[in-house]
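Sequence only, no structure available. Ideas?
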Amino acid sequence: MSAFQNEIDTIARLREARSGKWDNINPSHAARMRLQNRFHTGLDIAKYTAKIMREDMAAYDADTAKYTQSLGCWHGFIGQQKLISIKKHFGTTKRSYLYLSGWMVAALRSEFGPLPDQSMHEKTAVSALIRELYTFLKQADAWELNHLFRDLEDAKQAGNDVKAKELENKIDNFETHVVPIIADIDAGFGNEEATYLLAKQMIEAGACAIQLENQVSDVKQCGHQDGKVTVPHAQFLAKINAVRYAFLELGVDDGIIVARTDSLGAGLTQQIAVTNEPGDLGDQYNSFLDGDEITSVDDIENGDVVLRQNGKLIKPKRLASGLFQFKQGSGEDRVVLDCITSLQNGADLLWIETEKPHVGQIAGMVNRIREVMPEAKLVYNNSPSFNWTLNFRQQVFDAWEQEGKDVSNYDRANLMSVEYDDTELGKEADRWTRNFQRDAAREAGIFHHLITLPTYHTAALSTDNLAKGYFGDEGMLAYVAGVQRKEIREGIATVKHQDMAGSNLGDDHKEFFSGEGALKAGGKDNTMGQFG
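Reply:
I predicted one. Tokens follow.
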């Protein structure tokens, strides 16, 4: 007996027990509605997706070809269409996630209007977007299942038992669009209590994985901006603890914490770490501070801070802002210490924010981390802030030059030029770009590849293309040829936008509730019928 039929039988027994009071309830219709709404709360989703993500992490440990991917989505509809597309093209959503980008929340979802990625947006906007994304993913389940149920009824009415059995199998083995979200909590939006409170909201909304960075929360900067300021390890670890307590309080015992370090590009700290003895964590943090050695009390001026560092007294370099400066070239060593410390204190995954996509650079740091923590693996930002074309063309140029290959026909500084698109170097750089995720997963310990804000760019690009044609000479043809015709021919479900928004689903519900008296929208005069 199918799972669908089991649900029908269960509801039929419930109806019979009500002594006729539920006779208007059709068990088949109620079973459809049950199966169309598998997840009742955000915590249901968080527990379900945490298990998936843990299984994916174990699969990657066994085979690095099984890395995972996501795209950042700034609206529920964008996330929904992404997952529908993945299922359509690949038949499964396995190892495909969503990423919730703090950058895009700031730029697109704040009531203040567009903001830079500096934690100035409302913190509740983050959990609100998680809820919205999962609302749209659940609606995608209901939409797809509704079509299967309609087809099943048609097959049964036509007496086509073979088709009906095929559809019942599809319903019983239906793969949900609900996938893990890695959600950006920035630097925690305040002290560790604030981090805990927001983490709870995010988990209750459905997040199974929370990404936390080691910047100072009230002066947080985008990882690809200047002026980043890190905090001593003790403060960061307190926030990792806060997130873990939030997961445990809510019963998501296998929730995932992604510890991000911005130390590679951060040259400043707000505080000198507390240290109790030489070599402890605070002392290691302070050992990276830049300063001048003090040889006499006369070297100390009013307001100076004095620190013992490696057996010497130094005067740390403090800027007019009151921030202290790290030693030049210490970033990679600080990254390695950050990552080891985070994993030793409860983090599950790492995020190293880099200034360019370079497999060798990432692998160099990960290999050092794995000397202490062999299980270390990364979530990596395949950032739109990188000029990918120029970066990889320059990497190929440098590799060829080192190999002794003649590169005299190429101007390294101007490799972005279109004139290099069809050259041997341009094609090789494209091959490196195509293989970057596979290579980095294999060689640099990257478990999860994400693009933080791709749909910000795709929305702008597609709008520009439509506006250019529609308000120009193409007129309506710009929409018809550039959008609608492509939707029809490429099988994009939104061409029937009424159906995608829930019109057919609502019609069926109206019929469940009102029977023949239902006023439905999907009749012969609905222009959606023009699309077949």
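Residues 124-157 form the longest helix (34 residues).
Hope that gets you unstuck.
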